Amino acid sequence: MTEEYYQDEELNEAEENSPELYERHRFVADKGQGALRVDRFLSNMLGNSVSRTRIQEAAQAGYIKVNHCSVKSNHKIKPLDVVTVSLDYPQDDFTVFAENIPVNIAYEDDDILLIDKQPGLCVHPAVGNRSGTLLNALAYYFRDSANFDANNPKIGLVHRIDKDTSGLLLIAKTEFAKSNLGQQFFDKTTERTYNALVWGVVKEDSGTITGNIARDTKDRQSFRIYTEEENPAAKYAITHYRVLQRFEYVTLVECKLETGRTHQIRVHFQSIGHSLFNDAKYGGAEIVKGNLFAKYKQFVLNCFEVCPRQALHAKTLGFIHPTKQEWMQFDSELPEDFQALLEKWKNYSKG
Q1: Does 58 reside within a domain?
Q2: Catalytic annotation on 162?
Q3: Quick check: is 290 in a domain?
């Protein structure tokens, strides 16, 4: 038996302690498995942690699959069938209230809303952080809509990005849209790229970083790479990258995620000696590369002030529209702080 949880690459400190968007489970029926309703099979495997009603609701929503095909709750499983189930988490124990927070709308229709999130905006309320988030902003944006309820877990956020990561974020306006899009993210059929400025000159023009990621046992707010022997529960992660531009002591890279682990890009690049620029959690908020001259130190400090966050931007997002069944591709311009940071390094490298 294995368990899978979908979350996007980035979560901020508060969000790391909040519920994920979906709970995923994967089971393989034994060789001697007799014919059994899939809802009974899952109920037996999941025990008292999940109610039968919740399992049947998942089947109605198309969230239960046998050998990659959606099935009804009365479907009979056979030996060696691969059964996966995606479960919505129960509604949070606090109410999301409307707040007039500006958001940048990149696209909207009857089914979806695409946000170009500004840096510094938390996505989801959590303990100690129950206001000033994107969900509060959405509650206000849809305040006159009878169909959108920011407190309904069956609509809304399809994925998340970190508070200090800017860029594209997808919102589902209907239950069907969230079900459909959530499955696309889980099946890894979406296409996402990030732009990141990392410390050091990356030598290879392109490459792939792999490593099993899990929460750091010595620092619960961070993640790290483990070998399978060190931590069998660590999740395999794959990041593809290509160099966009090299400067004197930093490199601009494009990252394409094959998996979506928490802090994946940040952890992977730290593991190869190229921490993200100004990433305090993973060693990038200090002078990692360069000289010790006072003038250079001041230049780097000025760069930190220009872009006071990890230099990471969710640049592109591609997916199949849930009802039109058409491929949609979006691109987000780098925000002003990221552009200003690149300009400073460009000028420094020339000088």
Answers
A1: yes
A2: yes
A3: yes
Task: State the CATH number of the domain containing residue 222.
Answer: 3.30.2350.10
Give tens-digit pLDDT for 133-166. Answer: 999 999 999 999 989 988 888 899 999 898 999 9
Residue 7 reports pLDDT greater than 60:
no
Backbone angles phi, psi at 253, to 5 degrees: -125, 155
- Amino acid type, 148: F
Nearest to 332 by CA among 218, 165, 183: 165
Q: Are residues 217 and 342 in the same domain?
A: yes
**Residues β-bridged to residue 313:** 166, 195
Catalytic residue from among 162, 164, 279, 337: 162
CATH number at residue 47: 3.10.290.10
Q: What is the pTM (predicted TM-score) of this model?
A: 0.76
Strand 327-331 relative to strand 69-70, pairing: unpaired
CB 268 within 8 A of CB 211: yes
Instruction: For residue 64, list its beta bridge partners.
Output: 85
198 and 345 housed in the same domain: yes
Q: How far apart are CA 300 and CA 330, in angstroms?
A: 32
Identity of residue 332: S
Radius of gyration of the chain (CA): 22
Q: Rounded CA gap, 309 and 343, in Å?
A: 16
